[in-house]
Design brief:
The structure holds two protein chains of two kinds.
Chain A (H helix, E strand, L loop, with lengths): L5 E12 L2 E12 L3 E5 L6 H8 L7 E6 L2 E2 L4 H7 E4 L11 H11 L8 H11 L12 H13 L5 E4 L8 H16 L3 E6 L10 E6 L2 E6 L1 H6 L5 E5 L3 H10 L3 E7 L2 E6 L5 H10 L6 E4 L4 H13 L1
Helix pairs in contact in A: 3-5, 4-5
Chain B lengths: L1 H16 L1 H21 L7 E6 L5 H12 L3 E6 L5 H6 L5 E5 L3 H11 L6 E5 L4 H23 L14 H32 L1 H6 L5 H29 L9 H25 L3 H19 L13 H6 L2 H15 L7 H21 L6
Parallel strand pairs in B: 1-2, 1-3
Antiparallel strand pairs in B: 3-4
Helix pairs in contact in B: 1-9, 2-7, 2-9, 7-9, 7-10, 7-11, 7-13, 9-10, 10-13, 10-14, 13-14
The chains are: A alpha/beta, B alpha/beta.
């Protein structure tokens, strides 16, 4: 693929902290104008990859480019072109909204007015409180301010490290709407999240765990290519049901997922047989239905594949 | 340049909004100067003295008059000989002067021939040896000074600080300490705070050079220290009556170099420490203690054990305090503090070089 169409290109990046391998030969591409989601639990290496790509950390091995620039050789240029919003709230709590904005604009040699159009949809929501100190804002407002500050210099690539962690469900959904809006304006966005349900808001995702990428694809395609059989199951005694199913050798994995347990069929699985057996064990109201896997199911399937 | 000014504005806002720290930074010098200048002084300002007079005559009356009119002495009146012990024990008086019964004759003999038998006795409360010695010295000067001066083997002059005021001794010491505290401790904490809150990450991922970040951080503290320098010099001159006989521009030049040195030290600490508390600990343990103990601020360098002398030589405050003593108290010319000055300049350059070499624009 021609590099000019790639916003980020990562090739075999590894990074260790002492004996802990945070990233193990990670490779991925982010195309221009797409929202790419890095999805995985804590310890997946998401933050480390972000820090390497925004040139704060050096990788042990591997190469990467951001906006066509090498992260080692051209790190100074990269720093002026990307927008970075760290996972931890990293603005000045003792400065007001307005002062934070002005400061970050000056940092990049621009003014707030210059790029006001780009940040306006987000900044307008917090502008009425612009005289308030950042430390006294709610979680959602802090996040909007942080995004505004990361955007004020009109970056070509935006890095958002767990932008929705610690934010309520409504604000999270709004936040993804804002990201889609930014994508329309031509920005390339790499965002990480531990919430599997946010995967569907990305154009493409990388599922990762303990420093390795399990799979990269669009969320829809991941669902389509899912090759296992997955069922939702419930009965009057969910706890015993879970133990029962986990002991069953024809079921490769079973886990709680809200109202139903999800079970992934293994070799020799037979639906009618299972139902009979459960009723014999004294379960009543047994209900089993075939379901469309969500990203969490896919993630768990990929994990169980890895273990064998 | 506009960016740099904006940066300074932001740092100034941080300081102004942290009113507690700012108050400490601005009031600490004032409080310390006044504390050391007045409250904590090693000099003796008030000796309670009673006299024992077997037989009053004109000579004794004159001597007692000299005593009671002296500002350092509080005259407590005459007591009987058997009351001496009880007066000293109860702490009513610190010293008792016992005149001989033929005081008049003995004094005349002394004045004529320059020698003779003792004409008076000082009985001191020596539970505090320092005050007892100083008190005896005062009494000696007041009552026998005229005889001793005309006929003594040794003639002592207390140059530069004839009244032996301890403030003269402490002011340079406090200056040596305050500037390190404010420049080094506050700046290092301010830089490390950005690391701790994660804002340093955001600052680094920007076109701004780290050096700009750091210079902008140092500037307000440098200005703060200049304000303190002014306050200290004004207080020293007009409240404590320190002569400041040296050249004012030399005092300022040496002080500015010392400020830069302290800022470089703060920068160096900030490159080592990852948390504010660590920066504070380094500042306190590695800097304050040696400054107080080894710089000659409290204890003379000459009295230090041989092993500690070379250690004291690497304490920057030692050279600054030495230079300030010479300039403020002795009125020395710049040539006489040239050695101190050059050592301070050398240390500043060395610290700055190490700090900049240590400073990374990446994490780890």
């Amino acid at each position: 693929m021609d590099t000019s169409t790639l916003a980020i290109e990562v090739k075999g990046i590894s990074k260790s902290y002492g004996t802990v391998k945070a990233l193990d030969k990670v490779s991925l591409d982010v195309r221009r104008g797409e929202i790419f989601g890095l999805i995985g639990p804590d310890g997946a290496g998401k933050t480390t990859l972000f820090k390497i790509l925004v040139t704060l950390l050096n990788a042990d091995e591997g190469t990467a480019t951001v906006d066509g620039l090498d992260i080692v050789k051209d790190y100074r240029t990269i720093r002026s072109r990307v927008g970075y919003m760290p996972g931890k709230f990293s603005l000045y709590p003792d400065l007001t909204i307005e002062e934070n904005m002005e400061f970050f604009a000056t940092l990049f040699g621009v003014t707030v007015e210059q790029n006001y159009d780009l940040v306006a949809p987000i900044y307008k929501q917090i502008e009425p409180f612009k005289k308030r100190r950042a430390g006294r804002l709610s979680g959602g407002m802090k996040q909007k301010l942080a995004l505004s500050c990361a955007l004020i210099h009109k970056p070509s690539v935006l890095f958002l490290d767990e932008p929705t962690t610690g934010v309520d469900a409504v604000s999270r959904s709004e936040f993804w709407d804002m990201l889609h809006n930014l994508r329309e304006q031509g920005l390339s966005i790499l965002a990480s999240t531990p919430y599997m349900d946010e995967a569907s808001r990305c154009d493409r995702i990388a599922l990762c765990n303990t420093g390795r990428v399990l799979d990269i694809d669009s969320p829809q395609h991941m669902v389509e290519k899912f090759d296992g059989r997955i069922y939702g199951i419930k009965s009057h005694n969910m706890y015993d049901l879970l133990k029962e199913l986990r002991d069953n050798r024809c079921i490769s994995s079973c886990y709680t997922a809200g109202e139903y347990h999800h079970l992934l069929a293994g070799a020799g699985f037979d639906l009618g047989d299972l139902k009979q057996r459960l009723i014999a064990k004294g379960h009543s109201d047994v209900e089993i239905k075939s379901i469309v896997p969500n990203i969490e199911d896919i993630f768990i399937k990929l994990l169980s594949n890895e273990q064998y | 340049m506009r960016g740099f000014l904006k940066f300074i504005k932001k740092e100034t806002l941080h300081i102004l909004r942290d009113s507690r720290t700012m108050l400490i930074a601005l009031l600490m010098p004032v409080v310390q100067i006044l504390l050391f200048g007045f409250a904590i002084s090693t000099e003796l300002n008030n000796v309670n003295v009673a006299v024992v007079v077997p037989k009053w005559d004109e000579q004794i009356r004159q001597s007692v008059n000299k005593l009671s009119s002296n500002p350092y002495i509080t005259y407590k009146g005459a007591i009987a000989e058997h009351e001496i012990d009880q007066n000293l024990r109860s702490g009513k008086v610190d010293a008792i002067v016992v005149f001989a019964h033929d005081f008049d004759r003995l004094m005349t003999q002394w004045k004529q021939s320059g020698n003779g038998k003792a004409a008076m006795q000082f009985i001191m409360d020596a539970s505090n040896t320092n005050t007892a010695q100083a008190g005896a010295g005062y009494l000696n000067n007041i009552l026998a000074g005229e005889l001793m001066q005309s006929n003594s083997l040794v003639e002592t002059h207390m140059l530069f600080n004839p009244q032996m005021k301890s403030a003269f001794n402490f002011v340079p010491g406090i200056m040596g300490m305050i500037f390190i505290l404010i420049c080094a401790m506050l700046t290092s904490v301010a830089i490390v705070r950005e690391k701790e809150t994660g804002t340093m990450d955001v600052l680094l991922v920007s076109p701004v050079r780290p050096l700009t970040i750091i210079l902008a951080k140092m500037t307000p503290y440098f200005i703060l220290s200049c304000i303190n320098l002014t306050t200290i010099l004004l207080l020293a001159r007009f409240v404590l009556g320190i002569p400041m006989s040296g050249n004012l521009s030399s005092i300022i030049v040496v002080s500015l170099v010392y400020l830069l040195l302290s800022l470089s030290l703060g920068l160096l600490i900030s490159t080592i420490a990852k948390q504010q508390i660590v920066a504070l600990l380094i500042s306190a343990a590695v800097m304050i203690m040696p400054i107080v103990m080894l710089s000659g601020m409290m204890f003379p360098v000459e009295n230090m054990p041989a092993v500690l002398k070379p250690v004291s030589a690497i304490v920057p405050a030692r050279w600054y305090i030495d230079a300030m003593r010479k300039l403020l108290i002795q009125g020395a010319s710049f040539g006489l503090i040239l050695k101190d000055f050059l050592i301070l300049v050398g240390m500043t350059l060395a610290l700055l070089a190490i700090a900049l070499k240590n400073f990374k624009d990446k994490l780890e």
